[in-house]
Amino acid sequence: MFLRLLQNRCLQSFILIPRLSISTTAPLIEQCWQCHRQIDRNECQSYCPCEKHVSLPIRSELDYFHLFDFSRSFEIDTKQLTRIFRNKMKFLHPDLSTNKSDIEKQYSQEQSTQLNEAYRTLLSPLARAHYLLKLENITLEESPVQLEPDFLMRIMEINEELADNIEKKAPFPLELTIEMRQEIDDHMKQLSDALNKMDLLKAKEILARLQYFNNINEKLIELEVKHGII
Prior knowledge:
Blueprint: H1 2-12, E1 29-31, E2 38-40, H2 64-67, H3 78-90, H4 102-123, H5 125-135, H6 149-168, H7 174-196, H8 200-226
C-alpha cells in the first residue's frame, strides 16, 4: 500500500494547479451542413445550436486542450478533465445516433473517437507532455535526444538488476522502487517548470529521461503484482 501511495504521489502531485498559457482563440467560422447558419466552432465544438442540434464534423484546428476548455498547459486538473469527458460522451453514445442520418452517425463516431484519444492523451502526464511538444512541432521520434553515456549505463544496470531479480526470485527491490519513483517525481517537476517557461529543448531532454524511468517503473509495478504488494 505504501508503494502504491508513493507511486500515486509521484504521478499526481504536479497536475492539480491550472496555469493559463497562450492558445489561439481566433474564430473558426463555418456553415452548418444542415441548417446552413454560420457558427463559430470554438463555441460549438460538437453540435449546431439550431433546433435539430445536428452533429458537426471534427475540426483539426481544435486541439485536445480546446476540446475540454483548457488552456495549453502541462498542469491540468485531471478530475475536471474526467468530469468533462464523461459529460461529453453522454451525447456521443452510439444509441443516440440510431435514428440519425448516415452523415450524422459518421460525424458522431468521429467525434467520439477524437474525444477518447484526447482524453487518454491529456490524462497521462507523459502523453500530455509529448502532445504539448508536438503542438510546437517537436517530437522525440523525428529528432531523438542524445543522452549522456553515464545515464544510459545506469539505466542498463538497473534493467539488468531487475532481470536478475525476476530470474532468481529475489526479494522485492524496495530501495530501488523508492529511488525510481523519487526520480520520476523530481523529473516531472523539472518537466513542468521547463514547459511553463517554454524551454522546449530542455523539456524534450527531460521527457526523454522520463521515458526510461517510466519503463523501469512499469517493470516494478509488475513485480509488485507478482509479490502480492498490489
